[in-house]
Amino acid sequence: MFVRIFLSFLLFLISCKNYFTTDVFSSGDQLSETHIISDTLHVATLYGASSYFNYSDEEIMGYDYELVQAFAQANEIPLKVHLAATETEMLKMLKQKRVDLIAYNMFETKALKHKFDFVAYQEDSYMVLVQEVGREAVGSINELKGRTVHVIENSIYHQRLVNLNKEIGGDIDIQLLSDSLTIDQAIEMVLQRKIEFTFAPHKIAVQYKDFHRRLDCGIRVGFPQKNGWLVNRKNEVLKTMIAHWEADSKTELFKSHMYEKYKIKNPYFRAKRTKVSFETVSPYDDYFKTYAEEINWDWRLLAAVAFHESNFDSLQVSHRGASGLMQLMPSTAAIFGLDEDNIFNPEKNIEASVQYIKSLNRMFGKIENQEERKKFILASYNSGPAHILDAMALAEKYGKNPHIWFEHVEYYLSKSNDPDYYNDEVVRYGKFGPSETIRYVRNTLDTYKKYKQRS
Q1: SS3 call for 147
Q2: Could you say which of 1.20.81.30, 1.10.530.10, 1.10.10.10, 3.30.9.10 is the CATH number of the domain covering 285-454?
Q3: Which of 55, 325, 356, 451 could potentially form a cystine with 300 if both were Cys, beta carbons 3.0 to 4.6 Å apart?
Q4: At a CB cut-off of 8 Å and minimum separation 6, what does 90 contact?
Q5: Using CA atoms in the order 448, 450, 451, 455, what is the torsion angle rounded to 10 degrees?
Q6: Residue 22, pLDDT score
Q7: What is the pLDDT of residue 55?
């Protein structure tokens, strides 16, 4: 009997021609406690990097959101998303059958398995300690003795910290964050230096680390655990539909694309970066204006350097190790007073870069035309001065002006990967790949012109 009813129900869903729509409700919206999945799929989730967020005024994104949207669309079911304020509220909504599904990745625990069923499992994850890189960071769990760790009250992280404290013999100062906070907010409190330590799922913490290199999440505080979405235990129809959808090869490909989209370079963090108005160039304009005076530069040229170095991301770290807003190499930064504790400070990074530019200005002091000299400084800022000096020597040898950049020194820099030139007796520093530096000077000057037009 149940099989015939179930098959008839599935046929009804397949034949249903409802126009697919997604509506979003906040946690304060009223929702009837009686509804059926054939009418609308009601889903609860939280706002966060891995689940659901506003990328722009007109675009909603999120790993969990796009997956559940694809599931609903594949089954031609209208979807309504309900944003809960906390995990506790989501679980309450599901228990009271005000939603059909929690599309938010949660650790599988005995308590949750007793009340709900897990579906749409993701790869196993584990809890980690989230802290900031630096001298005060701990290197092992035992070093948490005597330190203060903040976790969300009445959460799985709270429970784990209490047990961990017992395991190492006590002495951890456990401080509780409001259970109205999300894991994303707790991690951001570490980044804002409001708290020193917290616990979080590795898969979420590592996404933050990819965009905030001063974050450390390398210390495990738990074993690998299963994790996934939640449905009520008696909702066999929905569980079966999700299982069939997951088994489809198209779904596997789609999930792979979603992994690449959200787990590798999550657009959530780009959306959170400061938006700049037309009247300004960057969030750091005041610093550029202050320190540009020391080198007699238009502050907008200094801002253009920052844009092409880091896209105004003060936490940027290049594959070569250049760090901060102005992308200073650690060795250069150290000469001008920066260390690992302050290299990501925007003002100090700008101040040190200006001191470096001062030294380059002295190096190219024989170039009388200051506008030309700036081009040599920009090139040296990008590549270091060695190969620029070689190109100047080649220009002089072959009858060009060594104090003019375009069509003179830039031309011979372009030859620095040609053995006929890098083996020349006037060349001291050997072969060099010039294309990046050539583009850098041109692009930075072009950006500077645009900044002058708009501000």
Answers
A1: coil
A2: 1.10.530.10
A3: 451
A4: 44, 45, 46, 84, 99, 102, 104
A5: 150
A6: 53
A7: 79
